Amino acid sequence: MKKFLVDDTEYYARAEGDGPIMLFAHGFPFDSRLFAPVVERLRSRFFCVVPDLRGFGMTKLGANGHNPNGLPRVKMGRYADDLAILVSEIACQRRQKNAKIILCGLSMGGYIALAFARRRPERLAGVVFCDSNAVQDSPEKATERRLLADTITSLQIPTLADEMIPNLVAPETPIKQPDVVANLRDIIASQSPEAIAAGARGMAKRSDSTETLGQLAAPTLVLGGEFDKLSTPESLDAIAAQIPDATRATIPHAGHVPPLENPDAFVDAILKWYDAKVQYAG
Predict the structure, then answer these.
(1) Is residue 229 helix, strand or coil?
(2) Quick one: pLDDT at residue 281?
């Protein structure tokens, strides 16, 4: 992991490979390890930048990871701005100051990708929108997130992981890939209460991004697991239909975390899309 100064904190990120920059935004409550299996396969084609988002993993929350009342909260736009600073710094280091990037966001990372697209559409060569949605939380869901933020403690996080995992993976994954489940549990259980509170409050606060879908000018791949309970194939079909010339792909034998459950199919879908829609675009 390399360290980068981003606004008021230090971001830790894997930054490796060769080729155009592919920037990854992980879901909640994960960190950069979510994408480790796919980076191993993609780094021969892309310069992969895989950060721990503000508060998660090794990256500290920082002063700007709090709301005006001092409570941990990071809005999706704050994460997006962080990523813009991070990738600009890396592009300058590589002497590619104005280089466009491919942004891959999963779940919460998908919300961040849409916020990035609204703020800096000129920086995007492509978008990989994974296992996510564009609508804001229902009042009930927003309340549930705020309650989690208000009550979470270190001792509760392993229990939270156990409660979340059945909805995150395909039914066959615990049986056929127990190591994936163990890895996912370790990732969730290692997060701090502050990071979970900040992300939960930020997601509860986000606005509807449906309009952004129709404004995506960069080539977009909409990806999702065959057995995703949180972002169902049907909901991702509907999202893809709202994006101009979107490509849609479903990852077999996977739920909400296909980079861990079926990394080979995840990578194959990205490479097929990139070669067909991005590589020679513009």
Answers:
(1) coil
(2) 60
Asked if pLDDT for residue 282 goes beyond 60, the answer is no
Closest C-alpha to 127, from 244, 15, 9: 244
Nearest to 83 by CA among 145, 28, 27, 4: 4
Question: In the numeric block, which tokens belong to residue 21?
Answer: 């920059």
β 247-251/124-130 pair status: unpaired
Boundaries of every domain in the chain:
2-278
CATH, range 2-278: 3.40.50.1820
Q: Which of 226, 246, 211 is nearest to 129 (CA)?
A: 246
The answer to whether 21 touches 91, Cβ cutoff 8 Å, is yes
CA atoms in the 13 A half-sphere facing the CB of 85: 16
φ, ψ (nearest 5 deg) of residue 263: -65, -35
Any idea which of 92-101, 130-139, 179-188, 269-278 has the lowest mean pLDDT?
A: 92-101
Q: What is the rounded distance in angstroms from the CA atom of residue 64 to the CA atom of residue 214?
A: 31
HEC states along 16-76? Answer: EECCCEEEEECCCCCCHHHHHHHHHHHCCCCEEEEECCCCCCCCCCCHHHECCCCCECCCH
Q: Tell me what pLDDT residue 280 has.
A: 65
Q: Taking Cα atoms as reference points, which of 251, 222, 226 lies closest to residue 237? A: 222
